[in-house]
Q: What sequence folds into this?
C-alpha cells in the first residue's frame, strides 16, 4: 500500500504561504527538504523509515524519551507525527509561528545514530531564529529535514510506531536552501 505524505497546495494556500513566510519563494513551499545549499544525495530517495506518534507531547519540546530510540537505525527516514498539520491549517500565521519543535538533544541523538532524514508534520525542527541555523547544522552533517508532511496518522494506524519504506522525490534545483518534494510511504 502507498500513502502520500505530501501536503496538497492550492493556489490560495500558495498565496497565503507566500504572504506569511518569505522563504516560500525559495523552494520552501509545502512539503520540502531544507537542504541549505547542499546537494541532496540521490541515494536518499529510498530509505527504510520509521514513524513515531508524538501527538501526546504538548507545551514542550519533543524529547528523546518521547520515541523508542532503540528502533532507530543507520540511514533511516524518521517521521514524527505531532498532529499539528491536522489541527492548524498549512499557510496560516499560527502554522508557521507556533508549531512543535524538537529538542536539541533529540536532534543530536539522531545525528549520532546517522539518520538520513527527519520528517515532520509541522514547519521546522526549531522555531523562530533557531529554525535556519538548526537546518544548516543538520545539513552540514548529512541529515536533511523534510517539513510539512501529512497523513502520518494514517501511516501509523493506532500504533505508537510503524516501519515503512520511504520514497522521496525532490525537485532538482541547484543553489537553493529548500527543495519541494513528494514523499510516499510504502507499507
A:
Amino acid at each position: 500500500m502507498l500513502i502520500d505524505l505530501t501536503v496538497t497546495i492550492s493556489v490560495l494556500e500558495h498565496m497565503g504561504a507566500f504572504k506569511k513566510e518569505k522563504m516560500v519563494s525559495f523552494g520552501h513551499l509545502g512539503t520540502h527538504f531544507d537542504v541549505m545549499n547542499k546537494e541532496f544525495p540521490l541515494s536518499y530517495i529510498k530509505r527504510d523509515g520509521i514513524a513515531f506518534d508524538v501527538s501526546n507531547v504538548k507545551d514542550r519540546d519533543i524529547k528523546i524519551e518521547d520515541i523508542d530510540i532503540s528502533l532507530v537505525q543507520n540511514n533511516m527516514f524518521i517521521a514524527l507525527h505531532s498532529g499539528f498539520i491536522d489541527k492548524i491549517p498549512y499557510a496560516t500565521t499560527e502554522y508557521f509561528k507556533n508549531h512543535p519543535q524538537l529538542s536539541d538533544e533529540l536532534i543530536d541523538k539522531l545525528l549520532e545514530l546517522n539518520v538520513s532524514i527527519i520528517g515532520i508534520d509541522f514547519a521546522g525542527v526549531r522555531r523562530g531564529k533557531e529554525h535556519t541555523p538548526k537546518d544548516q547544522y543538520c545539513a552540514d552533517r548529512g541529515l536533511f529535514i523534510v517539513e510539512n508532511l501529512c497523513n502520518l496518522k494514517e501511516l501509523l494506524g493506532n500504533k505508537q510506531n510503524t516501519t515503512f519504506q520511504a520514497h522521496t522525490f525532490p525537485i532538482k534545483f541547484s543553489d537553493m536552501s529548500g527543495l519541494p518534494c513528494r514523499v510516499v510511504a510504502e507499507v
User: Anything to note?
Assistant: The chain is about 20% helix and 25% strand. The domain at 2-186 is CATH 3.50.30.50 (Glucose Oxidase; domain 1). The first strand starts at residue 2 and ends at 4.
